[in-house]
Amino acid sequence: MADIIQLLPDHVANQIAAGEVVQRPASVVKELLENAIDAGSDHITLLVKDAGKTLIQVTDNGCGMSPTDARLSFERHATSKIKSAEDLFQLHTKGFRGEALASIAAIAQVTLKTRTPDLEVGTEISIAGSEVTAQEAAVVPVGTTIAVKNLFYNIPARRNFLKSNAVETRHIIDEFHRVALAHPQVAFKMIHNGSDVFNLPVSNGRQRIVNIFGTKTNEKLVPVSEETDIVKVEGFVMKPNFARKSRGEQFFFVNDRFIKSSYLHHAVVNAFEGLIKDGTHPGYFLFLTIAPTAIDINIHPTKTEVKFEEEHAIYSMLRATIKHSLGQFSIAPVLDFNKDSGFETPYEYSKKAPQQPNVSVDRNFNPFHSETATKAAPSFKKQSRGSWESLYAGLQDASSEATLTSSEEWLSSEKITVEKEIETESLFPKEEESVQTTFQIQNKYIVSPIKSGLMVIHQHLAHQRVLYEELLRHITVQEATSQQLLFPIELNLSNRQWGVLEPLEEALLQTGFVFEKQEKGGITVSGIPVGIPESNVAPILQQLADDLLAEVPDAGFSLNDVLAKSLARSMAVRSGTPLNKEAREHLIHQLFACKEPSVSPENKPVLITLEGTDLDAKFI
Q1: Are residues 265 and 207 in contact, defined by beta-carbon separation less than 8 angstroms?
Q2: pLDDT computed for residue 421 by the predictor
Q3: Residue 386 lies in a domain
Q4: Pick from 187, 202, 217: which residue ends a domain?
Q5: pTM higher than 0.85, yes or no?
Q6: In a domain? residue 241
Q7: Which of 119, 115, 121, 118 is nearest to 144 (CA)?
Q8: Cα–Cα distance for residue pair 202/185, rounded to 1 Å
Q9: CA triplet 329, 332, 333: central angle to 5 degrees?
Q10: What is the DSSP string of 482-509?
C-alpha cells in the first residue's frame, strides 16, 4: 500500500494553528497588545474599524525590531522570550510560544512597520495569507505599528460565524480592559470607527479602575493587601452593598496576566458570605504575585487558565485577606482591639476600693418662700384688681337679657309645626355590599374564584406579562407617555454600559425614557415613563445594561425583545407587595387582555387553576 501520511504545507498548518489562537477579532487585539507590553512601551494606541473585521491596528513606542527580527517574527515558533525548556518555568512576559503573528498572518492581510532607536530607517513588511508580498525600508518612528486588515478573508466560513458588530466590539473592549487594568503604568488609547472610546493616562491601580468604569466606582472600592511567602495579594473588592446580579467587574490577575479561575472565585464569594444577598455576585480587582516556578500558564492556548502548585494555601490566604480587609474598613462586623486608651480603666485602679459618692442638699431651700416671690405677688394683685373689674362692667345685665330672649324663642318654637316629607320606597332595591372576589396569599399570589374552582395568579409574573406586551407595543407601534422631571437625574454609567445602551436610545425614547450623554461620562435622564418612581430609574437602566451585556442579540427585533423583557422584569411589582382590591382586580383585567396571559415573557406559568374535584380529593 502506498504511503498516505504527509507533512502539511506551512500555510495550512498556520491556518490550523490560527483556529486555536485567533477565534475572533478580540483574540487579535489581545495578542497585539501583549506584544506591545513586552516591547517595553509606555504609550499604546488601539485603532479598530467595524468591530475589527475591517481593521485592527496597534501602535506602540517600544523597542522596535531590526529588519531581520521583523521578518522572523512571522515564522512559526519564532520567539525572543525563551531559549530552552527551563525558561518555561521562569516566564515574566506575555507571549512566549511564537505562534501569534504567524497565525494572524495566515488568515489576514498584515502590514508591519517598525524601527529600533539605533537605526535611522525602519522596515515595512506586507504579508497576506502567510506569504510575504513586500519588504522594504521605510521612514517610521521608533516602535512598532501592526495593521491587521480583512480578518478571515481567505476563510469565508470562519468569517460568517462572527457575531454582530455590537457583540464583537464588546469582546474587544473586554480584552482592552484586561490588559489596561494590569498595566496602569502604561498609557492606553482606543479609537473605534473614528471616535475615542478610551483615553487612559499613566496612573496607579485605583485611578485606572476609576478611569475605565467611571468616577462613582471610587467610593465602591475596598483596598486589599497582604504579602506572604507563597503569594502577594493586592487590589480592591467592591463593597457588599454594591453586589450585582450579573458577574460584571470580576478580574483576577496572576503576575499581571488575566486569568479565569472558578476555584479562586469561590474563595472570594466565601469571604463575602453573610454580607451579600443570595443570587448576587461581588465585584473585585485582585492582583496575585506568585513565583513563576510555582505556576504553569502553558495549559491553555489563550493562556487564561493557570495551574497553581499550592492552590489550597492560596485559596485560604485569599479568603482570609478579603475578610480582613472588609473588617478593617468597617464593612463587616469584627472585634475591634484598637480602642481609644482614654476609655480604658488604668491598672492602678484595680486594687482601689470603690468610693460612695456624696450628695449635698440644701434642706432649707423653698422656692415659694423666696424674697422675689413674696414681693412680686402682692404688687401684681394691687395693679391688676381694678383693671380686671372694669372688664366685667355691664356684662352681668347683658347676660341676663340674653337668657330671657333665648327662653322666649324656645317657647315660641314649640308652637311651630313642620310638614314632614313622605318617605317613598325606591323603585330599585338597594344593592347588597359587593363580596370580596379576590384576595392575596403571602402578598405573592392572587386568588380569584371561578365557576369551576379557584384560579391562582403569580402577581410578579403576571405584571411582567402585562408590561412586556405594553412595552413592545410602545417600541414598535406607538410612543408611550413620558413624565418630564423637574430636576434631571444624573446616572454614572461606564463606557461599556453606554456602548450597549446607545443603540437603544430611540427604542428607550419610545418607552418614555429621555436621556442624553454627558461629556464627563454617564447620562442625564430628563424624562421617565409614567408610573415609575424616580428612585427606581437608576436600578432599571443599570439592570438593562447588564442584561444586554450578558446577552446581546444580533437582529433588531431580538434586541427590542431583550429590551422589553429587561424593563418588564425591573418594573414589575415585586413579590411581597400588598395590593388592595382595586389593584388586584385591575391587574387581573390587564392580564386577560394580553395575547398570552398564561405564560410570562420567560415562558414561566403565570396562573394555575384548581378544579372543584381537586379540592374534593383533598377531603377524602
Answers
A1: no
A2: 59
A3: no
A4: 202
A5: no
A6: yes
A7: 115
A8: 5
A9: 110
A10: EEEEEEEEEE---HHHHHHHGGGHHHHH
Instruction: Specify the length of the chain in residues.
Output: 620
Residue 524 placed within a domain? yes
Is 150 within 8 Å of 111 (Cβ atoms)? no
Set of cell numbers at residue 197: 472610546
Look-up: residue for cell 494606541? 45
> 447: which strand partners?
439, 456
The residue assigned the cell 513586552 is 38
The amino acid at residue 260 is K
CB 577 within 8 Å of CB 445: no
Cell of 543: 439592570
Of the CA atoms within 13 Å of residue 259, those in its CB half-sphere come to 27
| 455 to 26, 262, 443, 582: CA distances (angstroms) | 52, 44, 16, 17
pLDDT < 50 stretches in the chain: 334, 372-373, 375-376, 379-384, 410-411, 413, 432-433, 553-557
Please give the Cα distance from 514 to 379 (Å, whole number): 75
C-alpha 356/C-alpha 350 separation (Å) is 16
Distance CA 389, CA 598 (A): 85
Which DSSP symbol is given to 336?
Answer: -
The percentage of residues in the chain with a pLDDT greater than 70, rounded to a whole number, is: 76
Domain boundary among 306, 328, 350: 328
What secondary structure, in 3-state letters, does 89-127 show? HCCCCCCCCCCHHHHHHHCCEEEEEEECCCCCCEEEEEE
Report pLDDT for 122: 92
For 447, phi and psi rounded to 5 degrees?
A: -110, 130
Indicate if 85 and 221 belong to the same structural domain. Answer: no
Pairing of strands 257-259, 195-200: unpaired
In a domain, 599, yes or no: yes
One-letter amino acid of 484: Q
